[in-house]
Design brief:
Two copies of one chain form a homodimer. Chain A is of the alpha+beta class and about 150 residues long. Helices cover about 40% and strands about 30% of the residues of chain A. Chain A is globular and about 45 Å long. The first copy, chain A, binds a DNA duplex (30 and 30 nucleotides) through loops.
Chain lengths: ~150, ~150
DNA sequence: TGCCTATTTGGCACTATTTGTCCTATAGTG
DNA sequence: CACTATAGGACAAATAGTGCCAAATAGGCA
């Protein structure tokens, strides 16, 4: 699965080259298509990127839930509504749809961060903040990891 | 199926061009006809757009239900009553019937949002509100996301 | 440390998509 | 019957997306 974090840059058309390490994972699956959607962690916006097969598995999970339950409706609007499929081009890039680019505040410098079966794309500044806050929390609460059973 | 969200504009005749990504799906079905009807999510009005075959399938579902049950009658009045069939023209546009345009408060800027087998059309301002509320709700309910494995 | 290879990025040209404008056909009205 | 208003269709300009090539950079190996 995906491992590591990489700093990359968008070109002026909004294209992002996928780190070779991540691309290898996709090639291993035999399908380089990905699905990309909006997400938010700790008030900070980012994009979630799934290999197509993982995304489909996830959609199936969602379909099993009660469709008209109110939180589910919100969730579908938010997470599924924004999801769009992209293909990786010959030099390993994807075009990030304008709305998503705008949502996550992606300008030039971005960071791609692995998250198990998927990875996330952050605006560099936003990522620095999120990362620093996470570190801070760990330092100030020594029991944090213990409480999680790690 | 449909994926992604797109900002488009109506021309002064009320015509809306369907995003190429969505049109591909219709072309894949070999039938570009669609059915469009009124809908409301979280108190906010929008339009539901179905490929014709999906709509027919949905009608069959409805037919199986007890026809004179009161809520079913209401639903039929509302959802089926507003439904109208449109064809996509040569440059990929549909004409949105005036009543529906008015219903959903469509002015110039609209957003087309995928929703699995169909998509929705929102007035841009309305969509922003609905989206922001959904985002808010999800942020405040981390357990819900946890249940979904996010 | 320096060379070689692989990866990433920038630039350019070409194609496709979207949108605004114009034109014609049709129906309604005087 | 002629004129006007309007809807629908087509054209064309502007914009955005895609593909390709090559420069620059980073990483690996000797």
């Amino acid at each position: 699965m995906f491992r590591g974090a990489f700093e990359h840059t968008l070109d002026n058309k909004g294209r992002l080259s996928i780190p070779a390490k991540f691309r290898e994972v996709l090639i291993g699956k035999g399908d380089e298509r990905i699905v990309i959607t909006n997400f938010v962690v700790e008030q900070a916006r980012c994009l979630d990127v799934y290999p197509l097969d993982e995304w489909l598995r996830f959609e199936d999970e969602v379909r099993k839930k009660p469709r008209f339950e109110r939180r589910m409706v919100s969730f579908q609007n938010y997470y599924l509504g924004g999801a769009s499929e992209c293909a990786v081009d010959k030099q390993g890039r994807i075009l990030i749809p304008p709305l998503l680019r705008e949502y996550a505040g992606l300008k030039r410098d971005v960071v791609l961060v692995s998250a198990l079966d998927k990875f996330r794309v952050w605006d560099q500044q936003t990522w620095k903040k999120v990362f620093a806050e996470a570190e801070e929390k760990l330092m100030q609460d020594p029991d944090f990891l213990g409480d999680l059973g790690l």
